[in-house]
Every structure is written in C-alpha cells, then in structure tokens.
C-alpha cells in the first residue's frame, strides 16, 4: 500500500489541467452493455475505478481496450453473462450502473447489492423502484438484486428520495427507458452534469431523450442503440479540489480545462469565503489572499454545492478564523474526515448532519488515515497547509478518483512524495481483507 508524505506550508503556484470526469465515465462505460456495436469513450481518466468498471465489463464477456490516446473502446457483442459479482461490486459502488443496461439488453440482470459504505447508508431502492415502474420484476436473492423483464414499457417514474434525487439511479432508469416501448417521463431526475452527459452519449447512440440536466426527462424508447464515439466532460470535482488546494495554501493557480459552467455553486462559495478568482471559458485563476471569511455551507444535489466537495471545503474552513458550519443534506453522515482533521489541529465538532468549525491560524502535521475518496482529498489539502510533514496512509482511496494527483500538486510547487507504506504492509492479511470490505464507493 502507498502513503503520501507531504511537507506543508508552500503556497501553490502555476498552471494545472483537469482530466475527464470519473462520474461521467462510469455510467457511460456501463451503458456500453446495452449498445449493439463498438463504443469509444474519450477523455476517460486513468483511475482505479475505471479499471474496476473495465474488469466488470470484461467479466461479462465484453472486449475492453484502453488506447494510447486515453480513450477506451468497448465491444459488447460477445457479452454472455448478466451477472455483476459481489467481488467487483463491493470494490466500487458505481458497479450498480450495469443494472439498467443489462436489463435493457438481456431482459435480466443479477447484480450484487453493494453493501456497507463509509459515507453513510446508501440504499438503491430508487433504482429498483424506477426499473419496476418500467415493468421489471425485481427480487432479492442471496445478496443479489435479480431483475427480469420480458418487455420494458415506458411509464411515469418519480425518482425523488428522502435526500433528493439519485444520480446513478437516474442513469440506470434512463438507459432502460431508452430501450423500452413507448414514452417514459422521469420526475425528480438528478440534474447533475454527469447525467446530462450520459443522455448526450445515449442520444449519440440513437436514443431519444430530452430534458436531461433538468428534473423532468422525457424518453421515447427506440428498438436498439448503435455504435458511438463520445468524449466525456471534464471532472468538476477534480477542478474544485485543485481550486481549494490553491485556496488553502493561499496560492496563485490557473486551472485549465475546468468545466466552469458546472461549478457555479463552488465558485460562489469561494467568492463568499473571500477567495478571489477570474473565470474564462474553461479556466479558473485563483489568487487567494491571506484574509478569508468563515461561512455556512450546505452540500445539496446539483445545482447546489456538491457533497463530493464537502470534505475539501471543510479543510479550507478549518484554516479560516471564526466559526463556520457545513451541513451535508445528501449524505448526512459523511463526516469520517473530521476526526483525522482534528488530529491535524482543526477544531471541528459534528452535530447531527452538520460540522461546526472553529478556524485555527495554523494546522499542524500528523500521521492520518484516509477513510474514503473525498476524505483523502481533504487530508491532502490540510497537509499542504499544515506546518511540518504529514503522513497520509491508505491513499488508494485517493487513487480511485484522482489521476496522478501528487504529480499535479508537485507541478504547482507542492512537496508531496508517494512512498510504500511498510507499516501497513506489515499488518496481518486478515485485517487488510476486512478493511477492504469497507472501502467506500463514491
Ligand atoms: C453519485 C456519485 C457520488 C456522489 C453522489 C451524490 C457517481 C458514480 N457517484 O453517487 O460521487 O457523492 O452521486 O452526488 O456518480 N439514495 C436513496 N435511494 C437510492 C439511491 C440513493 O435513498 O436508491 C440516497 C442516497 O443514500 C443519498 C442520495 O440519495 O443520500 C443521493 O445518492 P445518489 O445520487 O444515488 O448517489 P450515487 O448515484 O450512488
């Protein structure tokens, strides 16, 4: 296992480029199962989650090739199996995105339930409710969701849940409806840019979907989806994390290939905190001064502030004098990073689904442990600002969602070293196996 050693206190300076979106790529790759013909997806980031999705597709018989230009081709013509096994699904929750495509293509799917997750309780009842509304017969068998439908029929589907709409659930139901007979209307659909990109991909393959990116999506079913080539959108969460890295080190950084129109809530929050920035069409120039303001923020479904940036904002606000508050309305228990930030001198307490942050003048280095993908990003940010040398263990969480993150930060002047963690290597294997069972899947 790798760990990061970070020498903090260096203001970041320079230019960095954002890669393709992980959360756009995953459902698109999964949906290739429903397509008759070759699928080429461009700008796919080189991440562990993408490898896991490729393995899942290959386990079903798809031919997956990663090309030198960063694109991935999927030939689903030889797919024989409609089973997504526990071994792969437990490594990555987004594996559930194969449910809709498999059902649409084979009339059946057997997908393991994802199980526990470090960012809170994450059911898939809305995915199932949506597919059932299209006529699927759904049951649970030995930890697996078994979905069957001799024919999917268009329907009115309401995807609202107690914490808002579901992103991957909207994608699952959208692809099934794209191949159903007749008209489907999705109400309370997730409006995330990744959902809109997903619909753009399906439409390029011959689907008839309108309204994606709003809460009401209309889908007229077609007989088949054909070969397609699609470039995914840039990753707004990576762009936001880099912006927050610039802010927390009070740096001067230009972030290129940033999907600025998808980042309004993040950029507004930065303005309110007092982080000046200029925006051009696809670049953000952050020039953070030393005096920032405490703030009350709430993570919400898009177009609200993304829950996937909540931990990184918390790291920033931990360095801003005064009292801030962050509430997570999407994953109310997503505060695993708080205890580790506290180890670095942050003053944060959790109250219900909020964290109250009393900013300190200086964070200090400490050995810390990453607990999930975005939590690990928050720890990296805190370490960049802290005095001294921070060791962050279990950075495999970070690698699931950020490609060559330490290289991008070092290019901006940071001092981040990736080293082999001999301590963790010495941990007896059964413990490691246990901890991997709890790998969260954002
Ligand atoms: C996606 C993102 C993840 C992000 C999350 C919220 C991908 C691959 N992952 O995850 O990075 O943090 O959106 O923006 O795109 N819920 C239910 N029932 C369901 C499904 C969800 O109650 O059937 C709840 C969840 O527990 C959560 C909320 O709805 O409280 C939103 O979850 P959802 O949008 O489904 O998250 P994912 O699609 O899994």
Could you describe the 3D structure shown?
The protein has 442 residues and is α/β, with parallel strands linked by helices. The protein contains 16 helices and 24 strands. Strand 4 and strand 5 form a beta hairpin. Helix 6 runs parallel beside helix 7, helix 8 runs parallel beside helix 12 and helix 11 packs parallel to helix 12. The longest helix is centred in the middle third of the chain and has 13 residues. The C terminus is likely disordered. It binds uridine-diphosphate-N-acetylglucosamine. Uridine-diphosphate-N-acetylglucosamine (UD1) binds next to helix 1, helix 5 and helix 6. The site of uridine-diphosphate-N-acetylglucosamine has 25 residues, from helix 1, helix 5 and helix 6.
Backbone shape = globular
**Rg (CA only):** 21 Å
Helicity range of the residues? Answer: 25-40%
How far the N terminus sits from the C terminus, by CA atoms, comes to 20 Å
Features:
alpha/beta, 16 helices, binds uridine-diphosphate-N-acetylglucosamine, globular, 32% helix, 4-stranded mixed sheet, 442 residues, disordered C terminus
Compact overview of the structure:
With 442 residues, the chain is an alpha/beta fold. 32% of the residues lie in helices and 26% in strands.
Fold topology:
Blueprint: E1 2-7, E2 13-17, H1 22-31, E3 36-42, H2 48-59, E4 63-66, E5 72-75, E6 83-84, H3 86-89, H4 99-106, E7 108-112, H5 125-133, E8 137-141, E9 144-148, E10 156-158, H6 167-178, E11 183-187, H7 193-204, E12 208-210, E13 217-220, E14 226-231, H8 236-248, E15 252-256, H9 264-273, E16 277-280, E17 283-287, E18 296-299, H10 310-317, E19 322-328, H11 336-343, E20 347-351, E21 354-359, E22 367-369, H12 373-385, E23 389-393, H13 396-399, H14 405-411, E24 415-420, H15 422-425, H16 429-437
Helix pairs in contact: 1-2, 1-7, 4-6, 5-6, 6-7, 8-10, 8-12, 10-12, 11-12
Bound molecules: uridine-diphosphate-N-acetylglucosamine.
């Amino acid at each position: 296992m790798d760990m990061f050693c970070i020498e903090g206190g260096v203001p970041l300076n320079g230019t960095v480029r954002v890669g393709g979106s992980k959360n756009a790529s995953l459902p698109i790759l999964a949906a290739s199962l429903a397509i008759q013909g070759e699928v080429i997806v461009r700008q796919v980031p080189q991440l562990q989650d993408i490898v896991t999705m490729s393995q899942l597709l290959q386990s079903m018989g798809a031919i997956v090739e990663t090309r030198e230009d960063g694109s991935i081709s999927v030939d689903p013509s030889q797919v024989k199996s409609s089973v997504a096994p526990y071994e792969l699904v437990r490594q990555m929750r987004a594996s559930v995105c194969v449910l809709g495509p498999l059902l649409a293509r084979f009339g059946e799917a057997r997908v393991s339930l994802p199980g526990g997750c470090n960012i809170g309780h994450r059911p898939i009842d809305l995915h199932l409710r949506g597919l059932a509304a299209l006529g699927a017969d759904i049951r649970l068998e030995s930890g697996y969701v078994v979905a069957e439908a001799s024919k999917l029929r268009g329907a009115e589907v309401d995807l609202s849940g107690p914490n808002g709409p579901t992103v991957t659930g909207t994608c699952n139901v959208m692809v099934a409806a794209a191949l159903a007979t007749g008209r489907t209307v999705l109400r309370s659909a997730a409006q995330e840019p990744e959902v809109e990109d997903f619909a753009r991909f399906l439409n390029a393959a011959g689907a008839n979907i309108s309204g994606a990116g709003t809460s009401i999506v209309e889908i007229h079913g077609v007989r088949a989806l054909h070969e397609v080539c699609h470039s995914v959108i840039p990753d707004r969460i990576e762009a936001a994390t880099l912006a927050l890295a610039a802010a927390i080190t009070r740096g001067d950084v230009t972030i290129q290939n940033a999907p600025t129109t998808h980042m309004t809530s993040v950029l507004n929050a930065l303005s309110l905190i007092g982080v000046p920035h200029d925006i051009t069409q696809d670049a953000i120039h952050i020039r953070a001064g030393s005096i920032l303001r405490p703030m009350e923020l709430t993570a919400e479904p898009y177009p609200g502030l993304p829950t996937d940036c909540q931990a990184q904002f918390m790291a920033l606000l931990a360095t801003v004098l005064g009292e801030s508050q962050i509430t997570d309305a999407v994953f109310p228990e997503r505060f695993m990073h708080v205890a580790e930030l506290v180890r670095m001198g942050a003053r944060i307490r959790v109250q219900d689904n909020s964290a109250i942050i009393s900013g300190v003048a200086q964070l200090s280095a400490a050995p810390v442990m990453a607990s999930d993908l975005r939590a690990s990003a928050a720890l990296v940010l805190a370490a960049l600002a802290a005095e001294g040398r921070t060791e962050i263990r279990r950075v495999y969480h970070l690698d699931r969602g950020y490609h060559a993150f330490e290289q991008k930060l070092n290019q901006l002047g940071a001092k981040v070293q990736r080293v082999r963690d001999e301590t963790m290597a010495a941990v007896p294997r059964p413990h490691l196996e246990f901890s991997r069972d709890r790998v969260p899947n954002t």
